[in-house]
Amino acid sequence: MAKIKHNSFIDTVDEVIAGAKKEGVLHLYAEDQILNGRTLQIKGQKMFHFGTTGYLGLEQDIRLKNAAIAAIQNYGTQFPLSKTYISNPLYNELESKIESMYGIPPIITKNSTLGHLAVIPTVVRDEDGVILDHQVHWSVQNACQLLKIRGIPVEMIRHNNLNMLEDKIKYLATRCNKIWYMADGVYSMFGDFAPIPNLMELCKKYPQLHLYFDDVHGMSWRGKNGTGYVLDILKTLPDNVLLFGTLSKTFGASGATLICTDNRLREKIKNFGGPLTFSAQLEPASVAAAIASADIHLSTEITSLQCDLSEKIEYFKSLLVKTTLPMIVLNDSPVFFLGTAMPLTAYKMVQRLFNEGFYVNPAIYPAVPIKNTGIRITLSRHNQKQEIKALVEAMEFHFPKALEESGNSLNKVKKAFGIPETMPQIEDEEPKPNLIVQYETSIKKIDKQNWNNLLGKQSTFDWEGLSFLENAFSNTNSPENNWEFHYYVIKDKNEIPILATFFTYGLWKDDMLAPESISLQLEEKRKQNPLYLTSKVLGMGSLFTEGNHCYINKTHPLAEKAIVLLLEQVEIVYHKLDADILVLRDFEEDQQLNRIFHNQGFLKINMPETCIIQNSKWNSTEEFSATLSSRSRKHFFKEIVPFEQAFDIVIKDQLSDKELEQAYYLYQNVKNNNHAINTFTYPIEVFKKMESNRQWEFILLYLKNEEKEEITNPLIGILFCYKNTEHTYVPALIGMDYSCAKEFQLYRQLLFQAIKRARCLNLNKIDFGVSATFEKRKLGATIIPKVAYIQARDNFSMELMGTIQNEDKTHSKTK
Predict the structure, then answer these.
(1) Among 225, 312, 409, 656, whose Cα sits 20 to 30 Å from the Cα of 557?
(2) Residue 729, H or E segment
(3) Known PANTHER family for this protein (predicted)?
(4) Is the pLDDT of residue 86 over 80?
């Protein structure tokens, strides 16, 4: 298989967080000498605190503070011993009080993240299966990674999509004993709820279904004894439900608690629940504070506290409904989300609210999809009505200004979040002053000379190459190889080109750049459903081409405005097509572009490196070898030159029907053997159109038959090559017979023959494309890193692929 450099998720997240940090909205420090819960001081400015998850304000309760202080005086700062051996003197009292709250003995864990790591691998057996809501908290998803090692199937559904959940249940029903669905009770970003009544109905319909709820954001402010949203809906905990609550956040202390009706299972978790066995226990101060909080939860005071918060939530909502602010969910949780769509709008809005004296949280990728960026606002009992009212007034005043400042609009935000329009939609905005946009859907409407001056000499997308692609991939019978073309040329008022590019719209496999192990498993599913896990993509360039698809005159004073204008124009088409993903691809690293694209709501990912040879003027094999490094020269004379004589090498610009059939078979060989870049297989009609196009030619390799002068042996290798504007040679596709490829160094020989042919045609450049960079470098290729910028309507496909097993064990178990 061809090797490529895959994108790192960590690098992508680092890029986003670093950008937000640079804007001054993340990685901040509170400077207060004394915290009161109502205000924070940041960079010398006092702000009202609308970012807490301590919704009832118990972290500032004097009873919890005094209990913690006394515990330190009596027992020290920690009790450094595993709880498996002995618990600190306060643990028994805490467990007793938590049991009184729930009516069920609890398991106390250091925090919810370690709790999930302790519980999930213990309760989910090898014969079970798991289904995740794709917005369930990261700590739950992370704990499920341990299940994959054991070959346990881990599936994922779109957020709260019960139809999809039922389909997954049916799929796992004959393969698994228990089926665990894992979800949050209250989701931490949008403040929406799990559909618990509907889930319980599914449990009746499918007795295998068990529910696992993380309800840390529903704790304390809701339910009898503050036992949370989930139990408030259920009233009593069924045997098939496991419930995680928290002793931190709204509870005001530290730790987490698992509630489970199965006594035997509870003991099993306590006996060997990973972090429960090997990690330190809660510090005495935390346990004492939790005991003090539990006393409040067990008293009538908790109802008073809940009512106080509820009154403020209702007040906040009553103010918000009178505005045009795009609040995503307005329910009775203390979590609110103001949609901004673009990160830059969120940054500007946060900065403006900071300046007005309000601290709020930016909500950015990966917590939300990049185009669903926004501001999370949380209420607590510390917030007073006057500052709640002032916050709404500040939001209403500054939001239009933040939109304007970032080139955004209310309509764009509503489109990003799927909010119905409440006013007539404004038609496409007028182009920016001093900029002229030419938008076409066929290259034939673009001036040939102008296009080639801007984007010729690269890959197969000069004017003639795009004419071929339109002919080959438009109006086809197969949806996966049927594309629409969109061309943009942006000029200044003097008709000087600033930017030119093209996009294609069609289906992409979501795993196109995923590791081969993931693609191999998805291809098994595509045998039954060929379009499984595919997306409608509006992508710069095309799946057939690679290289710099976007000409930008960076020296022009309007270059940045032209880039932003392009994004605005492309977004119009993106929404009209109802595409799932927007991709800007094959750029070299550029800080200016990074800033522009990130602020406009794009994620940067690393693309496979591309390979280019600038042909020097050599006239013999010896002269060519002199252009290589000494190490590559040894490789060349050992692994390439001696094998050249084993082949009959033929160059043709037309193929017979038999040759075309053989060539297509060899192409399919390579395509089916290589999932490093997992695209759809091109139909034979594409190759027939190549064969009839004067820009294409074919390098064919046959094994020599020494006994006969004519070629009688079968074709074993072929390159499908494009000649671009008398400048660039493009070996676009390859076909090989793997039965003899290794013995005769077939792949390397094909590369060398492409280099020889380009020199013979006096073409100065070879676009060698992506993959196998190690082999191409040995023949003198320059390796160029590339990046792309993507924008998806949600993170579902990416997160789903993260759940896919990487071991064959899973497949053998579930077949």
Answers:
(1) 409
(2) strand 728-736
(3) CLASS II AMINOTRANSFERASE/8-AMINO-7-OXONONANOATE SYNTHASE
(4) yes
Q: Which CATH class is domain 31-55+303-417?
A: alpha beta
Burial class (CB in 10 A: 0-12, 13-18, 19+), 610: buried
Residue ranges of the chain assigned to CATH 3.40.630.30: 435-607+790-808, 611-788
Taking Cα atoms as reference points, which of 199, 231, 235, 237 lies closest to residue 218?
A: 231
pLDDT on residue 815: 37
- Compute the distance between CA of residue 183 and CA of residue 134 in angstroms, rounded to an integer: 8
- What's at 148, amino acid-wise? K
Fold of domain 89-278:
Aspartate Aminotransferase; domain 2 (3.40.640)
Owner of token pair 């409440």: 422
CATH code, residues 435-607+790-808: 3.40.630.30
DSSP result, 493-517: TT--EEEEEEEEEEEEETTTTS-HH
Mean pLDDT of the chain: 91
Q: Which residue has the tokens 């939609």?
A: 425
> pTM for this one?
0.83
- What CATH architecture is 611-788? 3-Layer(aba) Sandwich (3.40)
Range 614-623 contact pairs with CB under 8 angstroms and sequence separation of 24 or more = 614/764, 614/765, 614/782, 615/755, 615/758, 615/759, 615/763, 615/764, 615/765, 615/766, 618/759
pLDDT value of residue 812: 41
**Widest distance between CA atoms in the chain:** 101
Each residue's pLDDT tens digit, 617-667: 899 999 999 999 999 999 999 999 999 999 999 999 999 999 999 999 999
Q: What is the mean pLDDT of residues 184-209?
A: 96
How far is 671 from 676, CA to CA, in rounded Å?
A: 10
